[in-house]
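Quick one: C-alpha cells for this chain, please?
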Amino acid sequence: MVGTIVWLGSEVMFFAGLFAIYFSLRSMAPELWAEQSGLLNVPFSLVNTLILVSSSVTCQMGVFAAEKSKARSTSGNPKDWGMVEWFFLTYALGAIFVAGQVWEYATLVSEGVTLSSDSYGSVFYFTTGFHGLHVTAGLIAFLLVIGRAYAVKSFGHREATSAIVVSYYWHFVDVVWIGLFFVIYVLK
C-alpha cells in the first residue's frame, strides 16, 4: 500500500507537468484556445465524466465487500454483491468512459483537430490521452484482481489489500479527470 501511495505521488507530478504545459501553451495562444475549445462537445463530456465518477462509487462498494472478505455474491441481489460484481460494474463503466473518449477523438479528428494540427490539438490529445492510458491500466488491474479472487481457495486479507490498492489508483485517476474536465471543458 505504501509503495502505491508513493508511486501515485509521482503520478501527481506527471499530471502537474501536463497541466503546466496546457496552461503555458494556452497563455501563448488564447485566440486558438477560444476557437478550438468551441469544437468540444461539453454535454457529452459531462455525461462521460459522470460515468467515470460513478465508477469510483462502484469501486468503493467493491472495496467495502472485500474488506468484509466477500469475494462474490451468493445471490443475484445487488445488495448481496461481492467485490467481483462491484469490480465488474466498475470495469464496465470505465470501459464506457474510454469508448466515449475514443468517440470524442474521432469526432474532433473529423473536424480537423489532430495531434499535429496545432498546439491546442497536441496538448488536448497528450493530456486526455495519457489519462486514457491510465484508465486502461486501471481496467487491466481490475481484471487481475477479479482473476485473483477466482484463483484463490479462500478470499482473505491479501486479496482485500489488492482490491484496496487498485481502488487507490482508480480514485486517483478519477480525481485527475475531474481536474482535466474543469480545465479543458469548463474553464474559458
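The mean pLDDT is 92.
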